Structure formats: structure tokens, C-alpha cells
Amino acid sequence: MLKFSIKSSLANLRFRYLLLIVLLLAVLTFLVSSYVIRRNQASLLEVMSAQGESLIEALVLAAENIVASQSMVEETSLDKLRSLSAGLDFWNQSGVLTGSQLVQIARASGLSRIDFVAGNGSLVLTSEPSRDLKIFSDSAGALLQELKDALANGSDESYLTIPESKLLPQGGSLYLQKSRFGNRFILILVTADPARKSAAEVGIGYLVQEMGRQPGIEFIAMQAPEGIVFASKNIEGLYKIETDPFLQSALTERKTASRLAKFQGREFLEVVRPFESEQYPKGVFRIGLSLDYYHQTVATFTRQTVAVSVAIFLLGLLLAGFVIVNQHNQALKEALLRTEGLNLSILESMSSAVLAVDAAGKIIILNQVAEKLFGVGKAEIIGKDYSQAFPDDHWQLSKFLDKKGRVTDLEINFRNPEGSEKTLLVSNSGIYASGGRLQGAVSVLHDITDFKSLEEETKKQERLSVLGNLAAGVAHEIRNPLNAISIAAQRLKQEFQPVSNPEEYQSFLKSVLSEIKRLDQIVNQFLTLARAQKINRRPTESVPYLNEIISLVRMEAEQKRISVVQKNDRPATLPLDRDEMKKALLNILLNGIQAMPSGGTLTLEADTLPQEKKFRIRISDTGSGISPENLKKIFQPYFSTKETGSGLGLAITQRIVADHGGRIDVKSVIGKGTEFSITLPLA
Questions:
Q1: How many CB atoms lie within 10 A of CB 202?
Q2: The domain containing residue 493 runs over which residues?
Q3: Residue 396: which CATH number?
Q4: Which H/E stretch holds residue 340?
Q5: With 0-12 CB in 10 A as exposed, 13-18 as middle and 19+ as buried, what is 72?
Q6: Are 555 and 656 in a shared domain?
Q7: Final residue belonging to a domain, choices 506, 530, 554
Q8: For the chain, which end, N or C, has fewer CB atoms within 10 Å of the first or last residue's CB respectively?
Q9: What total of structural domains would you count in the chain?
């Protein structure tokens, strides 16, 4: 009974949990659907506004082109009238112009009439049979006042508008030009003609009418504060500019704007843009776009969104049930993933290179240390066959997979992609299933290069210690007879004078004393190398100290056409025996100069390694370089590639650096040069 009660409680709890998820999913679906519908409406309005702005921009551009073309036509017509008037004036002055000729010229030019009039208004010559100017008279029979004023003022040129009358039903334009040869004027009358009618038909009004007939456009109008200038339809219901802040703002700020408005009981999208020209009053173009397509699209999208939302809601119910049923399995998977992630983190954090393969020899694991060591990327090698990826079998896994033997703590020499020699310690082990079946193998490579170097240094120090004890005894045994020989040679030089060949005798004694001195120096160098010296360390500022050392070799380098480059701008305080370290650095600098007999570049760089609390000095040259076989021997006593070298300089340098608790490394490339790197502890 108790068991049934517990199950019932759990079932009720799951039902409530599922009901809560259903409610949350319903609310979330409603909110998302509402947002998507509103966003779609806003996007559609933005698209329509952009289209309306493009349409009104095209309309304004076309109107500006029409105004410009009409101005050009009028200017061209005026230029023709000027040229014709000037020619008629010249022919009349020559006395060859007659009334019949004027008639022919007027007809050929498509003009109504041509007259020559005196300054007092009397007709001199005309192209008309009736020799009068009644056509230019008002209703009282007097000349038009504008024409009188032009004749009285003696204007060089005038362009007058003639109103409609019985004699001139369509009205016209009168061009007046003063003669250059006397007080008379040439009058040319141009009446309204089919060309002007055609121009009116393709003007702004015609453009507005044509665009207004396009589907989706409610109306197009050009409106000024004074009223409607052009319009496509009956638009008496449009707001006036002075009563509409929206239109006033668009006109004042000279910008394109849009809004939702109502016209004749229908909602539309209105787009407005200011327009200004010399021929028309300043105003705005207004375009009303129909929202029928917008409402249809929104309705269709709303139906689709609701349908999709319902489908998503139902799918969400299924997913919620699936999640509740399988949440236990998911927890197990997450635990497994965390375990795998922990294993991968352990592999990546290891300081040794790790590689694993499956039973078929496919690579399945490669950590970051292995990537860096072998210069390969994990993405490009995982899944490949081990024998193809590593044909040299550095990991020694082939033997293990072929069951030919097991590898444990095997030392191998390896050159990495950067060219550095590495000593690796290889160990392999198998990956077995629960039944003992081999599923793969894993190999671990430890980089013991530094350990081997330390081991070599230890052995070298031991040899030097033994050599020091031996050197002390040998030096004592050599110096005693050397002193006796030196004293005897000095006494022979001072107390004995041969009878014959005194110069040869003195030269011989001088050679003996010189060789004794050189032998004593060799013994001292040998003792310096072999015996540990007492280091007198003092805090030393790196920049002035290195500047002082560079100044000692700069003159010799410049004499040999060697440029010296110094980069030690980062100061540091070092505990140094100034004299001993100066010997070590000068040995390397002078070797670099001697390696460049034909000139080159000698560089000294110094920088701080704060994480390691070390100070590094790098000295490089662009000389001939050192061969790999000689590079291993350069710190050995009495090894030298120079004819006059003792072979102790670099060995002493290494001993001085070691006495300071530092380390010296060297790398060289034949034909490119050599670089020595000295690492010292900071204070």
C-alpha cells in the first residue's frame, strides 16, 4: 500500500511538472508568435516606405529633368530669335529687305509675323498685308502698355507675353530687339503652336497623371502653400499644408518623410518630399500608396504563423514528454561527458607527449605537447593510420601492435621541425577490454633533453674538479723548474757577455724568456679552467655594464668593416663578478669578430624573462657558422678551429657562466652565422 502511494505521488508530481511545462510553452509560443507577426508588419511597412521613397525620388528627379529641359527649349528658341533678328537688322540696313521677303522668312521659320517699328511706335516694314499694329493693341485700340514701355525705354531686348484677343485668340509671345543701326526695333510674334501643346502634354502635370494611373497608387499631387499645383485624381479631401504639421515639417526640414493616413475613408501610406524650381511655387510632392497588398500579406502571414505556432506547440509537448522520460539517461550521458572531459584535461595538462591508437592502428588521441613536439595538427592527424602519419615510428608503437616486443624507457634522439636536437624517453602500454582483448595502445614520450644536458654538465664539472686537483700539482711541479730556468736566463742576460755574436746571444735569451712567460700564461689559463674560482658578486646595472663591454670591441669591429648593433634598452640588476663576466662576454664578442674577416654584423641583445626570473644575453654574428660536428666540441678544453687559438677561451667562458649559476647555449647555421645565449639569474 505504501509502495503504491509513493508511485502515485511520483506520478502526480510528474503530471504537475508536465502541466507546468505545457503552460510555459503555450505562453512562450503566444509571445513569440505575437512578436513575429508585429515584426513582420513593421518590416512590410519599412519595405513599402522604402519603395515609396524610391518612387517619389524618381518622380522628383523626373520633374527636375522636365523643368530643365523646358528651360533649355525656351533658351534655344530665344537664341534662334536673337540670331534671326540680328540677320534681319543687317539685311534691312543693307537695303535689300522687302515685305515679301519678310513674309517668306516668317513662313519658313514658323513665325506669326515680323515687323520693323520706329521708336515712336510707327510701323516701318511688316510681313503682314495690313500695315498696322492692331494685333498688339488693347481693347481701346491703343498699343499694349508693356510694348510702349519697351519702345520708350529703348530696351536692347525684351520678351513680352501677348494676351488673348479677337485678332490673337490663342495669345502669344513677342520678341523685341533694338536695331544696331538706328532708332528702330524688330518685333517677332510667336503664337501658341502644336510644339508647345506637345511640351505641355509631356510636362510635370502629364507625368503626375500617368503615374497616378499605376496600380497600388491612390493619388499623386504637387501641393504648394497656395494650393494644389498638379494632381492625378479628385483630391479635395487632402489636408492643406498650413493645417498639417507633418507637411509643414517636411517642407521646412527639406526631407523625405512617410506616415499612415486616411483619404476618402481608406487608409494609405503617404510619402512626401519637398520640391522647388524657378518655374513653380515651392511645395511638396505627395504620393499615397494603397495598403491592400499589405493587409493581404499580413493576413496570410498571420495565418501561417498561427499554424506554425500550433505545430511547434504540439511538437513541444512531444519533446517535453520525451525529455521527462529520458532525463535519467541524459544525466548519465552528461556524467560520461564530464569524465571524458576530465580525461582529456588530464592528457592536455601533462608535460609529456601522449599518443594513442586503436587495434587497427588508427590514431585516436594526440595531446598538445605531442602536437608541438612533432609539428602536426590534431585535426589533420586524428583518424589517420599511424604508419602513414609517422613512418619513422618515433613512438615505437609498431612493435607493440605487431606483438613483437614491448618498449619501456627507450632513449631516442629526435630533431624537431624547428631543427633542435631532442632526447626522448619512450614508454608504451596496451589498452585492453574487460576480456583481455587488445583494443589499442598508448605511448608516452618524455622530453629529457634538459635532464641529459644537466647530466652532461654534472659530469663535466666532476671532470673539471678532478682536473683541478691534478692541475694544481702539475702546475706546482712545472712552475718550480720554470722559475729556476727564468732566473738562470736573467742572470745569463745580465752577467755574461759573449765575445762573438752578442746580438744573436741577446736574441736567443729574449726568446727563452718569452717562451717561459707564455708557458706560465698557459699554466695560469689551465688553472683558471680547472679550479673553481671565488666569485665576488656585486649588484650591477645591466645597461651601463653592457655598454662598457661593447665600447671595448667597437673600434676593432669598425676597423674590420663590422657594424655593431646593441639592443639592451630594458634595465635589470644582476649579481655579477664584473671582471670575470667581462672575460666571458669579451671571449664571445672577439670570436664573433674573428668569424667575419670580410665584414658583417655583430649583435648584442639583452632582455628580461620575468616569469623565469632570468636575464638573457644573446650575441650573434653573420659569419661562416660552425659545422654540427664541431658545435658539439666548442666548449671542450684545447679544441680550436683557429691556427693560433689555445682552445681554452670558450671553456673558460662556460666555467664563468656556470660559477654565476647561469647557462650558455649555442646554435649555428653554416653560411649564416652563430648565436650564443647566456641566461643568468636576476638579483
A1: 13
A2: 453-530
A3: 3.30.450.20
A4: helix 292-349
A5: exposed
A6: yes
A7: 530
A8: N
A9: 4
Which amino acid is located at 242 in the chain?
Answer: E
- 8 A C-beta contact, residue 176 and residue 187: yes
**Per-residue buried b or exposed e for 274-306, using 16+ beta carbons within 10 Å of the residue's own CB:** bbebeeeeebbbbbbbbbeebeebbeebeeebe
Q: Measured between alpha carbons, how far is 540 from 56 in angstroms, rounded to an integer?
A: 81
β-pairing, 562-567 vs 600-609, is parallel
The gap between the terminal CA atoms of the chain, to the nearest Å, is 80
Q: What is the tens place of the pLDDT at every residue in 161-207?
A: 888 777 777 778 888 888 888 888 888 888 755 445 444 445 777 77
Residues in the chain: 683
Report the distance separating Cα 268 and Cα 152, nearest Å.
Answer: 58
Report the distance separating Cα 214 and Cα 218, nearest Å: 9
Q: Which residues pair with 681 in a beta bridge?
A: 614
Contact 589, 617 (CB under 8 A): no
What secondary structure letter does DSSP report for 533? P
Q: How many whole angstroms separate alpha carbon 60 and alpha carbon 286?
A: 10
Q: Nearest Cα to 617, choosing from 578, 579, 572, 659?
A: 572
* Residue 312 counted as domain residue: no
pLDDT tens digit sequence for 132-150 = 888 888 777 788 888 888 8
pLDDT of the residue at 197: 47
For 230, counting Cβ atoms within 10 Å of its Cβ (0-12 exposed, 13-18 middle, 19+ buried), the class is buried
Final residue before a domain boundary, out of 426, 447, 468:
447
Which set of grid coordinates corresponds to residue 48?
Answer: 513599402
Q: Which of 188, 182, 190, 157 is nearest to 95 (CA)?
A: 182
The H or E element containing residue 562 is strand 562-567
C-alpha span between 143 and 112 (Å, rounded): 18
The C-alpha cell at 351 is 608535460
pLDDT of residue 194: 45
CB atoms within 10 A of CB 379: 9
Q: Which residues contact 43 (CB under 8 A, 6 or more apart)?
A: none
Any idea what DSSP says for residue 166? Answer: S
CA dist list (Å): 171 to 163, 190, 295: 5, 9, 52
- pLDDT value for 659: 86
Go through 353-365 and write b for each residue having 16 or more CB atoms within 10 A of its CB, e for each that does not.
bbbbbbeebebbb
* 501 and 515 share one domain: yes
Residue ranges of the chain whose pLDDT lies below 70:
1-15, 17-18, 70-71, 73, 192-202, 234, 236-237, 316-317, 320-349, 351, 399-407, 419, 434-436, 455-477, 479, 525-533, 638, 642-647
Query: Do 459 and 429 share a structural domain?
Result: no
The pLDDT of residue 405 is 56
Which residues fall within 8 angstroms of residue 85, CB to CB, at 6 or more apart?
A: 175, 177, 186, 188
Helix axes 2-94, 99-109, angle to 10 degrees: 170
Q: Which pLDDT score is estimated for 296? A: 83
- Measured over the CA atoms of residue 104, residue 108, residue 113 and residue 116, the dihedral's sign is negative
Rounded distance between C-alpha atoms, residue 668 and residue 334, angstroms: 53
Integer Cα distance of 190 and 99 in angstroms: 18
CA distances from 470 to 54, 464, 475 (A): 101, 10, 8
For residue 160, tell me if it sits in a domain. Answer: yes
- Give the span between the Cα atoms of 119 and 179, in whole angstroms: 10
Residue 546 contacts residue 617 (beta carbons within 8 Å): yes
Whether 205 is in a domain gets the answer no
